[in-house]
Protein backbone atom coordinates (compact mmCIF):
# COMPACT_ATOMS: atom_id res chain seq x y z
CA UNK A 1 0.00 0.00 0.00
CA UNK A 2 2.88 2.36 0.76
CA UNK A 3 4.35 1.74 -2.66
CA UNK A 4 1.02 2.59 -4.28
CA UNK A 5 0.77 5.77 -2.20
CA UNK A 6 4.28 6.75 -3.26
CA UNK A 7 3.35 6.40 -6.91
CA UNK A 8 0.20 8.43 -6.46
CA UNK A 9 1.86 11.34 -4.68
CA UNK A 10 4.80 11.48 -7.05
CA UNK A 11 2.29 11.59 -9.90
CA UNK A 12 1.06 14.92 -8.58
CA UNK A 13 4.27 16.48 -9.78
CA UNK A 14 4.92 14.32 -12.81
CA UNK A 15 4.12 15.17 -16.41
CA UNK A 16 4.66 12.67 -19.16
CA UNK A 17 5.60 13.47 -22.71
CA UNK A 18 1.98 13.39 -23.86
CA UNK A 19 0.84 16.99 -24.04
CA UNK A 20 -2.03 18.84 -25.74
CA UNK A 21 -1.65 20.80 -28.94
CA UNK A 22 -2.71 24.33 -29.86
CA UNK A 23 -2.73 26.82 -32.73
CA UNK A 24 -2.41 30.47 -33.96
CA UNK A 25 1.26 31.60 -33.79
CA UNK A 26 2.95 28.34 -34.74
CA UNK A 27 5.87 27.20 -32.62
CA UNK A 28 7.94 24.13 -33.58
CA UNK A 29 8.85 21.75 -30.80
CA UNK A 30 10.11 18.18 -30.71
CA UNK A 31 6.49 17.02 -30.91
CA UNK A 32 3.80 18.70 -32.99
CA UNK A 33 3.67 22.24 -34.36
CA UNK A 34 1.95 24.23 -31.67
CA UNK A 35 0.81 27.60 -30.49
CA UNK A 36 -0.80 27.70 -27.08
CA UNK A 37 -0.11 31.30 -26.27
CA UNK A 38 -1.67 33.33 -29.07
CA UNK A 39 -4.47 35.70 -28.19
CA UNK A 40 -7.90 34.11 -28.52
CA UNK A 41 -10.12 35.28 -31.34
CA UNK A 42 -12.87 37.39 -29.72
CA UNK A 43 -15.33 36.00 -32.25
CA UNK A 44 -14.65 32.41 -31.22
CA UNK A 45 -17.77 30.90 -29.71
CA UNK A 46 -19.89 33.82 -30.88
CA UNK A 47 -20.61 32.60 -34.41
CA UNK A 48 -23.37 30.20 -33.48
CA UNK A 49 -21.05 27.22 -33.10
CA UNK A 50 -22.42 24.58 -30.76
CA UNK A 51 -20.54 22.44 -28.28
CA UNK A 52 -19.96 18.86 -29.45
CA UNK A 53 -20.52 17.60 -25.92
CA UNK A 54 -23.63 19.72 -25.34
CA UNK A 55 -25.22 20.35 -28.76
CA UNK A 56 -27.89 22.57 -27.21
CA UNK A 57 -25.27 24.96 -25.76
CA UNK A 58 -22.85 27.35 -27.48
CA UNK A 59 -19.23 26.29 -27.74
CA UNK A 60 -17.03 27.93 -25.07
CA UNK A 61 -14.88 30.66 -26.60
CA UNK A 62 -11.48 29.06 -26.06
CA UNK A 63 -12.48 25.45 -26.70
CA UNK A 64 -12.17 25.34 -30.47
CA UNK A 65 -11.20 21.67 -30.77
CA UNK A 66 -7.45 22.33 -30.91
CA UNK A 67 -6.57 20.64 -27.62
CA UNK A 68 -6.56 16.85 -27.51
CA UNK A 69 -9.86 15.57 -26.16
CA UNK A 70 -11.58 18.95 -26.51
CA UNK A 71 -15.27 18.54 -27.27
CA UNK A 72 -16.39 21.93 -26.02
CA UNK A 73 -17.43 20.77 -22.55
CA UNK A 74 -17.03 23.49 -19.92
CA UNK A 75 -20.48 24.20 -18.45
CA UNK A 76 -19.03 25.94 -15.38
CA UNK A 77 -16.51 28.10 -17.20
CA UNK A 78 -13.42 26.61 -15.55
CA UNK A 79 -11.31 27.18 -18.69
CA UNK A 80 -11.18 30.88 -17.89
CA UNK A 81 -11.26 33.88 -20.19
CA UNK A 82 -7.74 33.76 -21.65
CA UNK A 83 -5.25 31.28 -23.02
CA UNK A 84 -3.03 31.33 -19.92
CA UNK A 85 -5.98 30.27 -17.74
CA UNK A 86 -6.91 27.54 -20.19
CA UNK A 87 -3.36 26.15 -20.23
CA UNK A 88 -3.22 26.24 -16.41
CA UNK A 89 -6.44 24.25 -16.20
CA UNK A 90 -5.28 21.80 -18.89
CA UNK A 91 -2.10 21.09 -16.93
CA UNK A 92 -4.14 20.58 -13.76
CA UNK A 93 -6.44 18.22 -15.64
CA UNK A 94 -3.50 16.22 -16.98
CA UNK A 95 -1.88 15.88 -13.56
CA UNK A 96 -5.14 14.82 -11.92
CA UNK A 97 -5.76 12.40 -14.80
CA UNK A 98 -2.38 10.74 -14.37
CA UNK A 99 -2.82 10.55 -10.63
CA UNK A 100 -6.27 9.01 -11.07
CA UNK A 101 -4.99 6.43 -13.57
CA UNK A 102 -2.41 5.29 -11.03
CA UNK A 103 -4.98 5.37 -8.25
CA UNK A 104 -7.56 3.16 -9.98
CA UNK A 105 -4.83 0.53 -10.32
CA UNK A 106 -3.25 0.99 -6.89
CA UNK A 107 -6.52 1.02 -4.92
CA UNK A 108 -7.75 -2.51 -5.79
CA UNK A 109 -4.21 -3.95 -5.85
CA UNK A 110 -3.74 -2.74 -2.28
CA UNK A 111 -6.96 -4.47 -1.24
CA UNK A 112 -5.86 -7.69 -2.93
CA UNK A 113 -2.20 -7.80 -1.91
CA UNK A 114 -1.63 -5.64 1.17
CA UNK A 115 -2.66 -8.24 3.76
CA UNK A 116 -0.82 -11.21 2.21
CA UNK A 117 2.35 -9.15 1.79
CA UNK A 118 2.07 -7.70 5.29
CA UNK A 119 1.53 -11.18 6.79
CA UNK A 120 4.54 -12.53 4.89
CA UNK A 121 6.70 -9.68 6.20
CA UNK A 122 5.33 -9.92 9.75
CA UNK A 123 3.85 -6.41 9.58
CA UNK A 124 0.34 -5.12 10.33
CA UNK A 125 -1.93 -4.58 7.37
CA UNK A 126 -2.81 -1.02 6.45
CA UNK A 127 -6.31 -1.95 5.29
CA UNK A 128 -9.36 -1.13 7.37
CA UNK A 129 -11.07 -3.81 9.49
CA UNK A 130 -13.41 -4.61 6.62
CA UNK A 131 -10.58 -4.75 4.07
CA UNK A 132 -10.86 -1.37 2.34
CA UNK A 133 -7.95 0.78 1.27
CA UNK A 134 -7.12 3.63 3.67
CA UNK A 135 -8.84 6.82 2.51
CA UNK A 136 -10.40 9.99 3.85
CA UNK A 137 -13.86 8.42 3.84
CA UNK A 138 -12.73 4.93 4.88
CA UNK A 139 -10.31 6.04 7.59
CA UNK A 140 -7.08 4.18 8.27
CA UNK A 141 -4.69 6.89 7.10
CA UNK A 142 -3.49 7.27 10.68
CA UNK A 143 -1.87 3.83 10.42
CA UNK A 144 0.75 5.18 8.04
CA UNK A 145 3.78 6.69 9.88
CA UNK A 146 4.19 10.46 9.59
CA UNK A 147 7.83 10.05 8.56
CA UNK A 148 6.70 8.07 5.55
CA UNK A 149 4.35 10.85 4.41
CA UNK A 150 7.11 13.44 4.87
CA UNK A 151 9.45 11.39 2.69
CA UNK A 152 6.86 10.83 -0.04
CA UNK A 153 5.75 14.47 -0.09
CA UNK A 154 9.40 15.54 -0.27
CA UNK A 155 9.89 13.26 -3.26
CA UNK A 156 6.79 14.68 -4.92
CA UNK A 157 8.16 18.18 -4.25
CA UNK A 158 11.44 17.30 -5.98
CA UNK A 159 9.53 16.09 -9.04
CA UNK A 160 7.44 19.28 -9.06
CA UNK A 161 10.55 21.46 -8.78
CA UNK A 162 12.02 19.63 -11.76
CA UNK A 163 8.81 20.33 -13.66
CA UNK A 164 9.12 24.03 -12.80
CA UNK A 165 12.70 23.96 -14.10
CA UNK A 166 11.51 22.52 -17.42
CA UNK A 167 8.89 25.28 -17.61
CA UNK A 168 11.54 27.93 -17.11
CA UNK A 169 13.86 26.43 -19.70
CA UNK A 170 11.15 25.95 -22.33
CA UNK A 171 9.44 29.31 -21.88
CA UNK A 172 6.59 29.68 -24.35
CA UNK A 173 7.61 26.40 -25.97
CA UNK A 174 6.48 24.62 -22.79
CA UNK A 175 3.40 22.46 -23.22
CA UNK A 176 1.01 21.53 -20.41
CA UNK A 177 2.11 18.21 -19.00
CA UNK A 178 5.62 18.32 -20.47
CA UNK A 179 8.37 16.76 -18.38
CA UNK A 180 10.40 14.99 -21.08
CA UNK A 181 9.38 11.67 -19.55
CA UNK A 182 8.77 8.83 -21.99
CA UNK A 183 11.06 5.94 -20.91
CA UNK A 184 9.18 3.33 -22.97
CA UNK A 185 9.10 5.45 -26.12
CA UNK A 186 5.31 5.28 -26.39
CA UNK A 187 4.91 8.76 -27.88
CA UNK A 188 4.68 8.48 -31.70
CA UNK A 189 6.91 10.50 -34.00
CA UNK A 190 4.19 11.55 -36.47
CA UNK A 191 1.72 14.33 -35.76
CA UNK A 192 -1.41 12.23 -36.28
CA UNK A 193 -0.09 9.56 -33.93
CA UNK A 194 0.86 12.16 -31.33
CA UNK A 195 -2.60 13.70 -31.34
CA UNK A 196 -4.18 10.26 -31.12
CA UNK A 197 -1.97 9.34 -28.15
CA UNK A 198 -2.70 12.63 -26.37
CA UNK A 199 -6.42 12.12 -26.90
CA UNK A 200 -6.24 8.59 -25.52
CA UNK A 201 -4.38 9.80 -22.45
CA UNK A 202 -6.82 12.57 -21.58
CA UNK A 203 -9.87 10.35 -22.20
CA UNK A 204 -8.49 7.52 -20.07
CA UNK A 205 -7.59 10.06 -17.41
CA UNK A 206 -11.10 11.50 -17.31
CA UNK A 207 -12.60 8.04 -16.98
CA UNK A 208 -10.09 7.24 -14.22
CA UNK A 209 -11.03 10.39 -12.28
CA UNK A 210 -14.67 9.32 -12.31
CA UNK A 211 -13.64 5.76 -11.46
CA UNK A 212 -11.59 6.60 -8.38
CA UNK A 213 -14.38 8.86 -7.14
CA UNK A 214 -16.73 5.92 -7.60
CA UNK A 215 -14.41 3.65 -5.60
CA UNK A 216 -14.34 6.09 -2.69
CA UNK A 217 -18.10 6.68 -2.61
CA UNK A 218 -18.95 3.01 -3.12
CA UNK A 219 -16.79 1.86 -0.22
CA UNK A 220 -18.00 4.64 2.06
CA UNK A 221 -21.65 3.77 1.35
CA UNK A 222 -21.50 -0.03 1.34
CA UNK A 223 -18.61 -0.51 3.79
CA UNK A 224 -16.89 -3.23 1.82
CA UNK A 225 -13.92 -3.23 -0.60
CA UNK A 226 -14.56 -2.81 -4.30
CA UNK A 227 -12.71 -6.07 -4.97
CA UNK A 228 -15.38 -7.87 -2.92
CA UNK A 229 -18.39 -5.98 -4.21
CA UNK A 230 -17.43 -6.48 -7.86
CA UNK A 231 -15.26 -9.63 -7.69
CA UNK A 232 -15.69 -10.42 -11.40
CA UNK A 233 -13.39 -7.47 -12.16
CA UNK A 234 -10.63 -8.45 -9.73
CA UNK A 235 -10.70 -12.20 -9.17
CA UNK A 236 -10.26 -14.95 -11.77
CA UNK A 237 -13.44 -16.77 -12.72
CA UNK A 238 -11.69 -20.16 -12.65
From TrEMBL:
Q: Which GO terms describe its cellular component?
A: chloroplast; light-harvesting complex; membrane
Specify the signal sequence span.
1-17
Question: Mind listing the UniProt keywords for this protein, alphabetically?
Answer: Chlorophyll, Chloroplast, Chromophore, Light-harvesting polypeptide, Photosynthesis, Plastid, Signal
Query: Which coarse location class describes where this protein primarily resides?
Result: plastid
Q: Where does chlorophyll b bind?
A: 98, 169
Q: Which PANTHER family match?
A: CHLOROPHYLL A/B BINDING PROTEIN
- Cited function: The light-harvesting complex (LHC) functions as a light receptor, it captures and delivers excitation energy to photosystems with which it is closely associated. Energy is transferred from the carotenoid and chlorophyll C (or B) to chlorophyll A and the photosynthetic reaction centers where it is used to synthesize ATP and reducing power.
Q: What family is this?
A: Belongs to the fucoxanthin chlorophyll protein family.
This protein is called Chlorophyll A-B binding protein
Gene source species: Nitzschia inconspicua
The record lists the lineage as: Eukaryota, Sar, Stramenopiles, Ochrophyta, Bacillariophyta
Amino acid sequence: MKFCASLLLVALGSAAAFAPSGKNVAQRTNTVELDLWGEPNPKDGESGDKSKALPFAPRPKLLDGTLAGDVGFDPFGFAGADTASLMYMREAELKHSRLAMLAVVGWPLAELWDKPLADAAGLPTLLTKTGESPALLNGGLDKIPAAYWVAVIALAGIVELENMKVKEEKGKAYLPGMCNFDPLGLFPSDKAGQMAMMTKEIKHGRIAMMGILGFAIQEAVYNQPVVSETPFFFHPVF
